[in-house]
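Much of the work behind modern protein science is quiet bookkeeping, done one molecule at a time. The protein below has been through that process, and both of its lines are reproduced in full.
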Amino acid sequence: MQKNHIVIDSNGNLEDSLPLAVVDTSYFASALLSEFTSDESSVSRDFLQDLIQKNGQIIVPQLFWFEIGNVLLNAAKPQKNGAPARITKAQTDAIFMSIAELPIYTDLQPDSEIRARIFSIAQAENLTYYDATYLELARRKDVPLKTWDADLARAAQNS
């Protein structure tokens, strides 16, 4: 379920609600790669398209950009079993262009208080520090977290 935030125009009038979600790399990558490979679910792509059509916003931590870059780098490499890469160089370029056009808000660099909270969440929920970064952001912004990671999804439901 996605949470909507109230939007007030400059005259103080209620406009509409703005759907927001923190989206982790597993979910976002699945959405991106579902157009090019048959082994990715279209569920995440459909969710993100719906969010965008409703003028919503994707919220990510700074870590996201390094992770998504690494996912795309690995998808563009030949597989270790000798199979070809999952996506071509041209497809990678198209994906980067698509990402640039998306309504993605990158959260600010976490200060010491946020970093301590991430560490605490990671310990309490038995998550990696990386995954706890997404959960902390979703909790702080009070928006849903979209992920395919089972441990992270479980921890988000405990919130």
Notes: The CA atoms of residues 31 and 49 lie 9 Å apart. The first strand starts at residue 3 and ends at 8. The radius of gyration is 17 Å. Confidence is low (pLDDT under 50) at residues 6-10.
